[in-house]
Amino acid sequence: MIEVRGLTKRYGDKVAVSDLSFGIEPGKVTGFLGPNGAGKTTTMRLILGLDYADAGTVIVDGRQYRDLAYPMREVGALLDAKAVHGGRSAYNHLLCLAQTNNLPTSRVGEVLDLVGLSEVARKRSKGFSLGMSQRLGIAATMLGDPQVLMFDEPVNGLDPEGILWIRNLMKALAGEGRTVFVSSHLMSEMENTADHLIVIGRGKLIADCTMAEFIARSSGAAVRVRTPSPDQLLLAVAAKGGTATVDNDGSLLVRGMPADMVGDIAFEQGIRLHELSVMRASLEEAYMEVTADAVEYHAEARTGAATIGSGV
Amino acid sequence: MATTTAPGSAPALRLSPLPPATGRAGLAGAIRSEFTKLRSVRSTYWTIAALFIVSVGVAAIAGFGIASNLHNNPWNKAGTDAAQASLIAFFELGQLIIAVLGAMVITSEYSTGMIRTSLTAMPRRGTVYAAKLIVFGTVTLIVSLITSFVSFFVGQAAMSGSGVSASLFHSVTIPRGVNMSPPAGGPNSNGPPIYHFIGTIVISPSTVLTAIVGTALFVTVVALIAFGLGAIIRHTAGAITSVIGLMFVLPIIIQILPDTWRWDIMRFFPDAAGRVLSVTIGQTNDHLWSAWPQFGVTLIYAAVFLTVGAYLFRKRDA
Q1: pLDDT on residue B3
Q2: Mind listing the pLDDT tens digit for each residue in A153-168?
Q3: Using 50, 70 and 90 to split pLDDT, how confident is the model at A219?
Q4: What's the CA gap between B14 and A208, in Å, rounded?
Q5: Nearest chain B Cα to A131, which residue?
Q6: Is A54 on the interface with B (CB under 8 A)?
Q7: Which A positions 214-273 lie with beta carbon below 8 A of chain B?
Q8: Which CATH number is A222-279's, of 3.40.50, 1.10.10, 3.30.1760, 3.30.70?
């Protein structure tokens, strides 16, 4: 369990994180989204005490991170897979980390097996591919068998096999009841893995909600209707408070009301329908909409969410 | 890619349960970790090998050189400090080599990014810094003592038979000064000069032991100065350049100053101790303090750099 309260960090004149507050719930994959430079990595560094906050607090399992008795038993964090001494072997890298937390040496071999690096354990890590480095970093996070795992852009630069491996790992970890906090800007990836979302832009919180809620807020959610009399339906929908636009293929996209209501209106008006389908917005569409203008979003989203959300 | 996991398959999260946690992560674990770090990179071995080879090798060459010189010019035996001749490469060149290791112990963490991984595993930074300092200081002291003794013995072996070689086991008496006269047959003849020695210096084993150990301590403290500068500057080249500036360039600049100035200030610089600690034939420079007070000056430099380094290590963003 991680509680972030009023976190603020400035680098010179630039405000990286501004009055950020959120909580990370146990037993879920929480996706941490935002454009490049939004402050995702900075927030993670502040949680771990690598950078010092100008204001605000981070509480991990009831304490500040640096006061945890055995930090590696509580939190496993991988911020940068290349943040290792390349001249050191994978085995010795993990050994020197395990020793800081009085973890048994036998643990090193176990986590190397877990990530499939046993064969290269004695090789210096400077020769590792990005995928192997990523596995080494994940092995390090598992040394202390922590309940909380944090990954910063774990699939960045990985090949499809590596991406699949990470995705399955995160699901497996969450399936065991662990807390997984993972940042990414790859929306399709997040859509597959995350249950909960924290979205930030320009260092400020934009959204803290479930994946379903977040997507439902998007104006991409609509009801597609195909009818021989589009003009008649357009007027009828508008009369009931919905909006409709004509799509490229001549069908109507109705927003602001659920599909069953659109069907009822058509029935009442005696309009024949050839198609009535719900269009679910993708996370990517929802995200693009939300982060297009991070500052203006707040007001718009709060009012828009109620009407659009009910339609999906 | 050499892996034992089938492509993309879900990893089996079968890890044996950890023993229950008692106490908290502290200095003992951090020391074990820092020792693993130090012994698991090649640069450690290269640097120590370079220190040893240069110090011992030059001591041997100097020993043969002195033996040859004294064979041809026996009057030069007067005032020859045989022990210092074997230690001079160690403290002049060796301090520079070990300083590279001292700086890199800390700067390599920043240049590789490892510091972020290290401080995530062990966020109590004062403990990490102390563990690093203890491990590096201990290893350096042991290596320096071995190098100092070996340099001495090898240098003296090369000098044996010259009549001036110092010893750790018995006192050695050498002439204090020499009176030279023109050769018999006049100043222009080719005959050997006539000389006779004046006075004696008795070099006791304890004096020699103090020089060997003191020089090793001096080199160790210079390495700690490099460690402190590494923590302050966090950049390998910058830290090494600073050590060279402090230990080598500054003394040269001081040499250029008018005598009256430099005699007043040279004792306040950290390099001076090496020259007086390695002396076995009595104080040779009136403008420096005696060995241990002069060593105290070097210690103060180390203490200041290490303290500032510790403060910045804890206070700055990693």
Answers
A1: 42
A2: 998 878 888 888 888 8
A3: low
A4: 33
A5: B1
A6: no
A7: none
A8: 3.30.70
The residues in A 112-171 lying below 8 A from B, measured between CB atoms, are 113-120, 129, 131-132, 135, 140, 142, 144-145, 160-161, 164-165, 168-169, 171
β A275-279/A222-226 pair status: antiparallel
A73 touches chain B (CB under 8 A): yes
Cβ proximity of B201 and B190 under 8 Å: no
pLDDT at A303 over 50: no
Q: Which two tokens mark A119?
A: 């064969």
Instruction: Write b or e for each residue in A76-93: b if 16 or more Cβ atoms lie within 10 A of its Cβ, otherwise e.
Output: bbbbebbbbbbbbbbbbb
Cβ proximity of A193 and A31 under 8 Å:
yes
CA distance B31 to A97: 11
ipTM: 0.90
Of the candidates A69, A106, A115, the beta carbon closest to that of B25 is on A69
Q: Which of A284, A291, A241, A247 is nearest to A265 (CA)?
A: A241
Number of separate domains in chain B = 1
The confidence band for A79, taking pLDDT boundaries of 50, 70 and 90, is very high
What is the CA angle B31-B147-B248, rounded to 5? Answer: 90
Mean pLDDT by 10 residues, chain B (318 residues): 47 77 94 98 96 97 93 89 94 94 96 96 98 98 98 94 86 90 75 86 94 97 97 96 94 88 88 91 81 94 98 95
> Residue A110: which of B16, B114, B120 has the nearest Cβ?
B16
Check if CATH label 3.40.50.300 holds for domain A2-210.
yes
Q: Does B21 fall in a domain?
A: no
- Across the range A223-235, mean pLDDT stands at 89
The answer to whether the beta carbons of residues B295 and B222 sit under 8 Å apart is no
Residues of chain A contacting residue B19, judged by C-beta atoms under 8 Å apart? 104
Of B255, B220, B226, the C-alpha closest to B240 is: B226
Across the interface, of A99, A100, A161, the residue whose CB is closest to B8 is A161
Long-range CB pairs of A253-258 (<8 Å, 24+ gap) are A253/A222, A253/A223, A253/A224, A253/A225, A253/A279, A254/A222, A254/A223, A254/A224, A254/A225, A255/A219, A255/A221, A255/A222, A255/A223, A255/A308, A255/A311, A256/A307, A256/A308, A256/A311, A257/A223, A257/A311, A258/A223, A258/A310, A258/A311, A258/A312
| pTM of the full structure | 0.87
Residues of chain B contacting residue A172, judged by C-beta atoms under 8 Å apart: 10-11, 13
Full residue range of the structural domain in which residue B86 is found: 27-180+195-315
A179-184/A148-152 β-pairing: parallel
Beta strands per DSSP E along A1-48: 2-11, 14-24, 29-33
Residue B79 lies in a domain: yes
